Amino acid sequence: xxxKKMRCGVAAIEALRAAGVSKVFGxxxxxxxxxxxxxxxxKDIEYIGVRHENCGMHMADAYGRVTQTPGVxxxxxxxxxxxxMVLGLAQxxxxxxxxxxxxxxxSTEHLGRDAFQEIDQxxxxxxxxxxxxxxxxxxxxxxxxxxxxRIANAGRRGPVVVNIPRDLFNxxxxxxMPMHPPATSRPPAADPAALAEISKMILxxxxxxxxxxxxxxxxxxSGKLAALAEKLQIPVTSSAGHADILPMDFPLHxxxxxxxxxxxxxxxxxxxxxxxxxxTRLGFNTTFYKxxxxxxxxxxxQIDVDPTALGRYFPTALAVTADAGSVIDGLAALMAPIAxxxxxxxxxxxxxxRERAALWAEREASGARTQTPxxxxxxxxxxxxxxxRNSIFTLDAGTTGFQATDQLPCYEAPAxxxxxxxxxxxxxxxxxxxxxxxxxxxxxxxxxxDGGFGMTMGEMTTAVMSNIPAIGIVMDNGTWGSEIAxxxxxxxxxxxGAHVHSPRFDEVMKLTGGNxxxxxxxxxxxxxxxxxxxxxxxAIIHVKVDPEATISFRKDALQKRA
Length: 562
What we know:
Number of strands: 20
Helix content: 25-40%
Mean pLDDT: 95
Number of helices: 22
Shape: globular
Oligomer: single chain
CATH architecture of the largest domain: 3-Layer(aba) Sandwich
Strand order of the largest sheet: 3-2-4-5-7-6
Structural class: alpha/beta
Strand content: 15-25%
CATH topology of the largest domain: Rossmann fold
CATH class of the largest domain: Alpha Beta
């Protein structure tokens, strides 16, 4: 190793390089100009400039979920620019997504004096991050950046913010080269005694179910789970927002449990006597923390990398702190195949397969409607026909996400990125851009309502400027869909603030320099998607959908009024 003197901005970029960074999202500002100047010479790092810090955080979030390495966002401006990141950081924290955000801070001599653009950024970020760090001295800038990468990707992942007072960049420092990359940690492996106990519980069960969550995707264990389910002939259900854990057409994949899932999957967990929860917290959007869709008499085996998640919402018969993939490996090695005709759950499986077939037949029938405005099910059915098998879909919260989450053609995990428990509107399009940057060989398709897209429409310029050929499908019902459904179902149709006026976003995209499509009849959305994929340019498909086809989700939180 040798010591090299360099400007602090250059040292910060060298730290990113040591962490293996090849893509950086950012919105430039004067607080971090030294880093931006160093990026000018970093030809091996691609910079994607965004129009709003919150949207840039969503791009970094999606990038982290797809690549399993922290997405990086450089927030150029202290104060207001940094504050704009808060919602995106909260979103990443709810998703346990690895993100490293580097932002400026007021100069050290001005801190605590209510200086220009001074905000207490440490306090601001604490509730919405895994860690907040403020660099105290210029020579420690590389150290703090590399530590942020280690923390963001260790254990249960999450966003980390590094605050750097702007005057610290005005120094030359001695840097040890080459820098060491951040240390990596392996999640704990399964305990042999626990594996043996799980095997015994499976063999003693009559209605076992595998219930899987994000831990399967982080472990890249979808193929292993499919093989184990096939071997033991045990159906698999998924937690909310993770319908991509197994291919949509895998017969033993029942889909999502709970309000955001489907009745067939929910029936499996309602009637189960053993639920093996793999890499899932059994969280709110799946369970509402109630036994509505989970059998209260079922034994629950819960596996998660985070010991604090085990047994938090539901008591467990066995709690295992381990990587979900290692548990699947251990069970596959330990258990012999169970013949379908000999399994105690054979009749249950036969009924389940009939109900699954009926559910998909019902969905295809609903998707074959031809009336206009189009029903959302028509859009989802056309996506199942036209989207490439390796597509990545991103969703917003609200009606669009609620209806689509269990119907999309997800085949190669990760293939579905949603706001999860943050439940925010305005996530989807920016996330699609981040996903496309992370996986340029895969189609990235965003679905969101006209209200949500209006929040983030400025990022169309990001897509065009950086040549990111993601495809946004705007499902325009002219309303804030979830809320107007609540006003319809619980407030006797007393509508206020629930309607939205939007421009033709496809035309706006054309003015921006991308492609735009405006389907008006059944079949045209699929045609537009095929054309957009073939063209390979940023595209918006703006389609009118039925404003009456909205659903009330939080029935638990509202009561109908007389």
